[in-house]
Write a sequence for this structure.
């Protein structure tokens, strides 16, 4: 067996290297590349993804997998060998359904679509971006058709990112969330005065913010020997291997939350990458279990830790030393409340915990409607604005703060957005278990100790990489499949207390 497994691993290692080279080029494109580099870069990305696709879908891989499946049949489900074969098979079957031409077209559309989106966003003019999005909708449809689905085209796309998840299940989850969130938003709105948010807009020197944010994330456990932080339009994290997991952030003088919480969020992603087991490097198991599981790590650090009272008891003194003027008359409790202000807002990445999932629900619905041709691209801004009004009660002043705000639709990505909500839910579900395992977690956070928390996440989530599907991982870590109940209980309790609203079981 070891000889065949070695042959398979040699191929997987080459595919991994090609994908990591692609990631380096994409990172450069979003951080340092001059605008003139776009054409050549899109060709490079297209070539590399085509080569990776050809290599990973070669007949030889299929033959090796068939032989290895027989030989690993008796091994435990979670053994390295059985898992490499099982997950490689899932990828192989999915990838074989997509032609190299389609893969290459997807890569090119992404690379050329992004600068078009950037320009349209800058000028707040959706019409500039519409042709690129029409192309992307068509490519999403072609992917769904190629992968195959029983009921809804979205099933094919969501399963590609969140293995095992269906459109119907998501609709059920969103319905449950909506039932819990909408009354909570109303309760919070009635007591809006309980939280004063003005301190966040007093002006914080940008370079000092970037430095402070990097200092905080290293204290949480982000390893700078194997990471770095840069600036980009849209914050993201990326990884090129066990020794290199990077984050980007953006910074605004006039709004404090953007830089620090963006950095904590991306560092949560990067710490996940830094925690993958050495034994899975250069195989199909290396990487995050799904975008949803990835997002559970970023949201857990950003919200469940970074927006906790204990966190601010610990960090507020150093924050006030770094920014004495804007924080002159503020204490840690007032700052803790300010960063947890809940109010309906335009921008997803700045949305608070209570309203955030409504932003995702909106995108999930619109992607479905575009895919099923119930909505035309040209009518998208209007559909967006109408729903923002209906779910969050706010008017969208322009496309930049509306339909053009996210980078995602500039590349072929339908099916990724639900992962953000799934991530919120997984984060809360894991945290419920972590609190049982580490009873003095809050006291540890208040002392600035994050080692036990990071160790728990490493052991139960990070180290496994893609070995398990999201639900397999959750069953092992928490004893239950995905459920929105812990998240709903968490926001009701936290925001009920913050806003002096009595949590009412509904
Ligand atoms: Zn994220």
């Amino acid at each position: 067996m070891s000889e065949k497994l070695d042959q398979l691993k040699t191929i997987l290692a080459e595919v991994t290297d090609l994908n990591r080279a692609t990631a380096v080029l994409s990172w450069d494109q979003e951080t340092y590349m001059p605008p003139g580099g776009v054409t050549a870069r899109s060709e490079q990305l297209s070539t590399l993804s085509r080569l990776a696709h050809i290599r990973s879908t070669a007949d030889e891989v299929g033959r090796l997998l068939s032989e290895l499946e027989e030989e690993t049949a008796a091994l435990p489900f979670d053994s390295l060998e059985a898992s490499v074969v099982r997950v490689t098979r899932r990828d192989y079957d999915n990838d074989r359904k997509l032609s190299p031409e389609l893969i290459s077209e997807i890569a090119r559309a992404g690379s050329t679509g992004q600068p078009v989106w950037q320009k349209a966003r800058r000028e707040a003019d959706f019409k500039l971006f519409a042709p690129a999005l029409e192309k992307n909708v068509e490519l999403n449809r072609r992917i769904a058709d190629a992968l195959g689905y029983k009921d809804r085209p979205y099933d094919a796309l969501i399963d590609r990112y969140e293995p095992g998840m269906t459109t119907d299940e998501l609709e059920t989850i969103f319905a449950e969330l909506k039932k819990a969130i909408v009354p909570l938003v109303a309760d919070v709105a009635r007591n809006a005065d309980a939280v004063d948010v003005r301190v966040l807009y007093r002006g914080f020197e940008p370079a000092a913010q970037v430095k402070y944010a990097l200092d905080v994330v290293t204290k949480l456990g982000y390893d700078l020997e194997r990471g770095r932080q840069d600036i980009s339009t849209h914050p993201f994290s990326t990884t090129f291997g066990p020794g290199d997991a990077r984050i980007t952030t953006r910074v605004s003088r006039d709004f404090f939350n953007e830089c620090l919480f963006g950095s904590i969020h991306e560092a949560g992603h990067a710490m996940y990458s830094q925690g993958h087991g050495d034994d899975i490097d250069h195989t199909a198991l290396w990487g995050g279990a799904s975008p949803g599981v990835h997002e559970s790590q970023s949201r857990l650090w950003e919200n469940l830790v970074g927006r906790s009272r204990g966190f601010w008891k610990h960090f507020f003194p150093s924050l006030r030393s770094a920014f004495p003027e804007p924080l002159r008359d503020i204490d840690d409790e007032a700052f803790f409340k300010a960063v947890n202000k809940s109010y309906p807002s335009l921008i997803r990445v700045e949305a608070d915990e209570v309203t955030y999932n409504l932003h995702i629900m909106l995108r999930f619905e619109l992607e479905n409607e575009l895919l099923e041709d119930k909505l035309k691209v040209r009518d998208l801004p209007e559909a967006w604005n109408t729903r923002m009004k209906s779910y969050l009660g706010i008017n969208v002043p322009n496309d930049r703060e509306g339909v053009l705000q996210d980078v995602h639709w500039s590349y072929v990505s339908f099916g990724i957005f639900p992962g953000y909500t799934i991530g919120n839910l997984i984060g809360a579900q894991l945290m419920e278990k972590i609190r049982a395992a580490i009873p003095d977690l809050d006291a540890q956070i208040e002392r600035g100790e994050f080692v036990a928390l990071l160790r728990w996440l490493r052991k139960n989530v990070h180290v496994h990489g893609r070995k398990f599907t999201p639900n397999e991982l959750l069953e092992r870590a928490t004893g239950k499949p995905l459920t929105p109940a812990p998240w709903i209980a968490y926001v009701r309790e936290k925001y009920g207390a913050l806003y002096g609203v009595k949590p009412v079981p509904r």
Notes: Residues 2-31 form the longest helix (30 residues).
